Amino acid sequence: MPGGWSDLDMLEVGLGGMTDGEYVAHFSMWAALKSPLLLGNDIRKLDAKTLSIINNPAIIAISQDPLRKAVQRIALNTSVPVDSFGIGETHIWSGALANGDQIVIFLNAADTALYMQTTLAEIFVMDGPHGSAPQAKQTWDVHDLWQHGHSRMKLGDAQALLDAESQESRHAVFERLDWFNASTTSYADALAANDERLFGYKVGEVKAGRQSEFSCPTTCGEGLQAEE
Q1: pLDDT tens per residue across span 114-149
Q2: Which of 205, 210, 216, 228 makes a 20 to 30 Å CA pair with 41?
Q3: Cα–Cα dist 80/114, whole Å
Q4: Cα–Cα–Cα angle for 186, 71, 226, nearest 5°?
Q5: Per-domain residue ranges for the chain?
Q6: What distance in Å separates the CA atoms of residue 111 and residue 89, rounded to the nearest whole number?
Q7: Cα 51 to chain centroid, rounded
Q8: Pick from 190, 220, 163: nearest CA to 57
Q9: Cα–Cα–Cα angle for 93, 110, 218, rounded to 5 degrees
């Protein structure tokens, strides 16, 4: 519905009972589906691991993307190992961003780590079937939004933020890390300026007609940027 938002209820991150990978998957999906990022945990008891997840600027930038378009599921596979409850499946989700980039999520809900792969034709199927989308004929840079550098804050640095006793000391930690701070620069302004801290870490490229393949313990969040 135009002007409406998916509301998946409050986030479970930090409430306990889930693995780190499950929290990462949970937070990624909330952001990519444009559901409001409402924390359900007690922020007075926030730990470093939780802060390192919810403070990922690349994922929040997807949530705040000006296009305001939710990702769509483009693949479902239930022929994978199941858990003790008989549940097991993998998904691939894809969605456009306002600047022409594309977010791709490999969601592994199987009972084992898996290699997952897709093609540009599949990623851009909503823009044209059977590889007819113009985006499928481009070369794209692949950016990892979780595993490197500016994406996931190290636990020691997250703890330093939690231990800071004043706003000034928190700002000092952000400046020392060169970490994105939305209280000083808005996401809209940073996206317009192509601030690299909102785009994860380049891990490779995908050429037209080639497959992209990733090892996914639980979830992989990737961003595609068209090469200049």
Answers
A1: 888 888 999 999 999 988 999 999 999 999 998 766
A2: 216
A3: 9
A4: 70
A5: 20-226
A6: 9
A7: 15
A8: 190
A9: 60
User: Exposure of 99 by Cβ count < 10 A (0-12 exposed, 13-18 middle, 19+ buried)?
Assistant: middle
The three-state secondary structure class of 127 is helix
Q: Is 161 in contact with 211 (CB distance < 8 Å)?
A: no
Report the topology of domain 20-226: Immunoglobulin-like (2.60.40)
Q: Is 130 left (phi over 0), alpha (psi -120 to 50) or beta?
A: left
Whole-Å CA distances, 61 to 31, 185, 198: 8, 12, 6
Q: Can you give the pTM of this predicted structure? A: 0.89
| Residue 41 CB burial class (10 angstroms; 0-12, 13-18, ≥19) | middle
**How many angstroms separate the CA atoms of 200 and 55, rounded?**
13
Total Cβ atoms within 10 A of residue 69: 14
pLDDT tens per residue across span 35-90 = 999 999 999 899 999 999 999 999 999 999 999 999 999 999 999 999 889 999 99
Furthest-apart CA atoms within the chain: distance in Å: 56
- At residue 85, the 3 state secondary structure works out as coil
Can you tell me the distance from the alpha carbon of 117 to that of 129, in angstroms, rounded to the nearest whole number?
A: 18
pLDDT band at 228 (very low <50, low <70, confident <90, very high): very low
